[in-house]
Amino acid sequence: MAVNKSPAPVVSGLSKGLTNYGDTGFSLFLRKAFIKGAGYTDDALARPVIGIVNTGSSYNPCHGNAPQLVEAVKRGVMLAGGLPVDFPTISVHESFSQPTSMYLRNLMSMDTEEMIRAQPMDAVVLIGGCDKTVPAQLMGAASAGVPAIELVTGAMLTGSHRGERVGACTDCRRYWGRYRAEEIDAAEISDVNNQLVASVGTCSVMGTASTMACLAEALGIMVFGGASAPAVTADRIRVAERTGTTAVAMAASRLTPDRILTGKAFENALRVLLAIGGSTNGIVHLTAMAGRLGIDIDLAGLDRLSRETPVLVDLKPSGQHYMEDFHKAGGMPALLRELRPLLHLDALTVSGRTLGQELDAAPPAFAQEVIRPFSSPIYPAGGLAVLRGNLAPGGAIIKQSAANPDLMEHEGRAVVFEDAEDMARRIDDDTLDVRADDVLVLKRIGPTGGPGMPEAGYMPIPRKLARAGVKDMVRISDGCMSGTAAGTIVLHVTPEAAVGGPLAHVRNGDRIRLSVQRREIALLVSDEELARRAAEHPIERPQGERGYHKLYLQSVTQADQGADFDFLRASATRETVPGKPTR
Ligand code: FES
After folding, report:
1. Which residue's CA is minimally distant from atom 3 of ligand 1?
2. Residue 397 contacts residue 280 (beta carbons within 8 Å)
3. What CATH number did the domain enclosing 320 receive?
4. DSSP string spanning 306-355?
5. Residue 258: enclosing H or E segment and its boundaries?
6. Are residues 229 and 350 in the same domain?
7. Do 493 and 350 lie in a common domain?
8. Whole domain around residue 442: which residue ranges?
9. Quick one: which of 75, 285, 318, 322 could link to 401 by a disulfide (CB 3.0–4.6 Å)?
10. If you measure from the C-alpha of residue 480 to the centroid of ligand 1, how many angstroms do you get, rounded to a whole number?
């Protein structure tokens, strides 16, 4: 008997992913009956379905414009002949997430992935913005494999305090430091509190949210020019409409994330991360996203890129300006034009065009002061440097562009805090034995120890030193810091203390040497002594008792694997980036 070899019909729109009742005809009949209860016609239900992930939440002011964006995306979808269907997922805000937003990132990525899989959609628009939301969405979408496009809520506006322009959150930390040092009083810090966040939207400096917005555009998974428009502008709404229209075209061409998020795209994103002086968290998120697609990010390769990619964007915390200035200066298209010789121009973007084609069609350059030409960078190398040594065999990161040049070659005595509570208890104690040239060490704020890599790596200067005018010290931890923070701060020490990394065995008075020049972070203690300490105090990985806490502690990987869950990463590595040097 002849076998019919014709391919299975492509299932799309409302017929995708039917609920399992054992009778597909009935499943579709029932689905349509229910959605018709909302007043849809058969004509509407026959269109390509574009899901819209709505992360609006009253707990998330960074997404306060989500309702307007959803409306504009819907308009774009309908203009292009699609049917928009918005749905909620978890929304995570930095200041409203206990213990940390990073602890919840993987949960949000699972929610995003499973709801994209579970519900019928031909493409999906991901509306994110606040730090962990964009990586969570892109991780989830990469695993779900449905055509996906990112739309960020956009940056907040800047405020004004007594004539000085201020914005979250570099200025939050600066003013809080002044308050701790008793340079300003309680009344003034209260006034500042009213001005730091002048509108809805994400932090107004090159913190993690702005970094992830720029990286999404560099990856090609966002409309070209879509990263920088502030939240409350007409430009942002137009980007949203364009995103909806683009999503319909992506559905038609089945432009899935694996075709966009390639090794070349990740290498472009790493270049951009370095050139914007981006958040150190960006490398953890990129690693997690790439890991979903079987792409490994090699820290040594990142460091090589860093030596040849200068910081060109003059934004706080590395520079002077704010995101709204970056937008007025031309945003990502202007930056990518400067970086053009270093980029893979054949990388595909959501429009179906390559990055090179998008750049060819971009508006011309004009005179401005925020995005520097290659010949006049604000920092001669990339924003990040990768350190190694016996204290961090798996690597550590420093944001060299926001560090104090006088401390980047430094040796000092360790002043050790066993965990965040220990630090909170003792750091402001006037009897603490600490000097300005010491090295502050904070343990157990890594992926497992935090749990969830709290942004406590930006350790406060001990109050007695702050009062004496000390503004920066070398600080080392296995945690993160906010992308809005600055200082000579070594982060992501891997392996972390909570799983028995060498950091666990540092003691008060040990000598530590930091050399950014040599990319070294060294504990000046012999291997024998470290082995003796490890045998004396064996470390047991913490285990949760139940629920998500248990899943998290048992499954989270180290920072060099993106702190993703081990079971969410691709089963095999297809590619390692950055590749070998070609120029
Ligand atoms: Fe949401 Fe900064 S707190 S972006």
Report:
1. 94
2. yes
3. 3.40.50.2300
4. HHH--B-B-BTTTSSB-HHHHHHTTHHHHHHHHHGGGS-TT-B-TTSSBH
5. helix 257-260
6. yes
7. no
8. 385-540
9. 318
10. 15
Query: Residue 1: what pLDDT?
Result: 46
Question: Which protein residue's CA is at the shortest distance from atom 2 of ligand 1?
Answer: 203
Q: Is the CB of 209 under 6 A from ligand 1?
A: yes
**What does the pLDDT read at residue 583?**
47
Rounded CA-CA distance 6/21 in Å is 26
Residue-wise pLDDT for 517-533, tens only, equals 999 999 999 999 999 99
User: Tell me, what's the pLDDT at 485?
Assistant: 83
Q: 470 alpha carbon to ligand 1 midpoint, in Å?
A: 28
Ligand 1 pocket check for 156: Cβ under 6 Å:
no
Is the domain of 394 the same as that of 528? Answer: yes
Q: Is residue 40 part of a domain?
A: no
Question: Is residue 197 lining ligand 1, measured as CB closer than 6 Å?
Answer: no
**Most informative mutation of 108, 130, 153, 281 for ligand 1 (most atoms within 8 A of CB):** 130
Atom of ligand 1 nearest to the CA of 482: 2
Which atom of ligand 1 has the smallest separation from the CA of 129?
A: 4
Write the CA distances from 533 to 9, 185, 502, integer angstroms. Answer: 64, 45, 10
pLDDT < 50 regions, the chain: 1-2, 582-583
Give the per-residue pLDDT at 5. 59
